[in-house]
Amino acid sequence: MKLKKILIDIIPVLVGILLALFINNWQQSNSEKNYIQNSVKSIIKENEGNILELNEALRRQALFMDTLERYLDDDEYTLADIIRKSKGVYTPDLKSTTWKFLIQDSKHTLVSYEFINRLAEIEKYEVLVNRFNTKLGDIIFQPAFFDDPRMKNVCGILFSDYGAIEFSLINELKEFNDYARKTYSIPTDTVAIEKSE
């Protein structure tokens, strides 16, 4: 009799505890899902911004290359003259803070290996772009190179390689965004950004 009464008293307590645990787990799961959804949206938006930045860089670099080709064999025009005529040399300013924050956060375990691996591929190309930025700075912004006719050829070769890497990075960014939208059910229009004029 006492055992029956104890069980009758304990059952509502156990049900309450189990219900509280279920609700807590459900809330934590929803919180983690929202965190990942918002993080992925931010990464996609940042990638879209990088794509716009890379496209602008390629457009302006094409102007530089056209000017360079026009005056490549003309000894009267130095590299400095060509840079001035093409209104400077433009390199992209890429952002990757959102996904680096996610990866460093303890919640990175909530995303798949493929997700992280795709971001690593993007980083590989970003590192190459940044190395080219440094190399171009070493060549273009050295006054001693401005009057050296060979530097026009070196610049032309570097910019050809640079453009190929930028195109590859654009493709990686687009492929990641398509993958992330599909994997995390994110509609295309929810993270669209406007091109700044």
Topology, element by element:
Blueprint: H1 2-70, H2 79-85, H3 97-104, H4 113-140, H5 143-146, H6 150-183
Helix pairs in contact: 1-3, 1-6, 4-6
Describe the protein in words.
The protein starts with a helix and ends in a 14-residue tail after the last helix. The chain is mainly α and about 200 residues long. About 15% of the residues are buried. It is built from six helices and no strands.
Which stretches are low in confidence, meaning pLDDT under 50 for 5 or more residues running? none
What class do helices, strands and sheet pairing give? mainly alpha
The overall strand count is: 0
**Helix-strand pattern, N to C?**
HHHHHH
Proportion of strand residues: under 5%
Instruction: Output the number of helix runs.
Output: 6
The residue-averaged pLDDT reads 82
Give helix % range.
over 70%
Outline the biggest β-sheet: none
Radius of gyration: 27 Å
Q: Top keywords for this entry?
A:
single chain, 197 residues, mainly alpha, 76% helix, rod-shaped
